[in-house]
Amino acid sequence: VAPAQDSVLAVTSWLNKNGISSKTASPAGDMLTLEVSVEQANTLLEANFMNYVHDQTKTTMIRSLKHSLPASVHDHITYIYPTTQCVTKYESPGSSLVVSLIDFRCLSSP
To answer: Which of 15, 36, 61, 94 is 20 to 30 A removed from 23 (C-alpha atoms)?
Structure first.
């Protein structure tokens, strides 16, 4: 579903004001992709991104425990990834089942 034009304008204006360009990541235009540094993400989202390590797999992920959006875009953005999500893959032995799990207990800060 295509976003409302006022949502597109609000979000792209906010990003542009912060010196960030984006690319449409879905045919409907309801998802954007952007590349930012950790410093930029921290400033943009009032977050504290840092490295976390999955206790079992030792996989390192950059995540934040919280983030915030300004009022001007809050009602226009439904989801930001990755922020607080800790997605890992579980593969069932002997089958082709692969499930993505979100488990906040899986991470510890190094």
So the answer is: 61
Give 93's Cβ-side CA count (13 Å radius): 0
Both tokens of 87, joined, read 């997605």
What pLDDT score was predicted for residue 89? 55
CB 20 within 8 A of CB 34: yes
Residues in the chain: 110
Round to whole Å and give the CA distance between 61 and 53.
Answer: 6
Name the pTM for this structure.
0.71
Q: List the structure tokens of 72.
A: 């001007």
Confidence of residue 75 (pLDDT cuts 50, 70, 90): very high
